[in-house]
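It is worth pausing here to work through a concrete case rather than discussing structure prediction in the abstract. The textbook approach is simple: state the sequence, then state the predicted structure, then interpret. We follow exactly that order.
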Amino acid sequence: MNLVVGATGLVGGHVCLELAKTGKSVRALVRPTGDRGRIEVLKSQKVDLVQGDLKEPATLEAACAGVATVISTASSTLSRQAGDSIETVDRQGQLNLFEAARAGGVRHFIFVSFPPMGLDFPLDRAKREVEERLRGSSLAYTILWPTFFNEVWLSATLGFDAANAKVRIYGSGQNKIRWISYLDVAAFAAACVENTTVRNKVIQLGGPEALSPLEVVRIFEKIARRPFTVDHVPEEALRAQKAAATDSLSESFAAIMLGAAQGDTIDMTEARSVFPAIVGRLSSVREYASRSLNVSSGAGATSA
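Step two, the predicted structure:
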């Protein structure tokens, strides 16, 4: 049995679906207050549902019973649930899950985190503490470090409003990033299950090519056949925002925006070696742009 924690979230739900479609047994940790639509999708795929909460250790012990592999994608960063925070979910909640997994005889813990950015902020500290706990235990682990998600960072939520041809760019926009689809992250995480070659490894994950935000804008402009208005947020402003933040989530978001401004090309050598099939079919920014703009991937676009 494979337990997915974060199963009603962006990545976790698709990890469940990836596992289910390959015939692997899947148990999803869900909360009574979880997204009903996403829970119904899990039910439709015959995913076993168990109620629990990272903030309630006793529920995790029951969830881990009979489980061989735990895949955790859970984070408070996009949550609007009462009591969720970086401290209660990303730090202590994940540590609660680790302890329940260890006590329950789980053999493999797959943790979806993110690569260090060379900055000190609450979310980074939480992720590194969990990673260190995993590394220092006898429990086999795989830590995945995906870079920036297309569907989050190239969306109107964070100021990349392609539908209205208005985008916000953090910093100069010249530093390259290997943008990745959350669907590909889910595929990587699911492929780690029952894969002995990924045990006790940290694997960096990125998309098929490194593109600067300004190069991304040009791709969208070519597909949309219209110019975009670009607004830059200077790195100095992001540093000031981070310093002035009054809560851990605001500080963390400011820091991650600063990390985006600095770029993240990552090293795909390990991922290419372990997951050649997935790396060979990674979704590109151009494909994402075409879907976002409801345009055929070949229409109206030439090579950037």
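Step three, interpretation. DSSP finds 13 helices and ten strands in the chain. Residues 297-304 have pLDDT under 50 and may be disordered.
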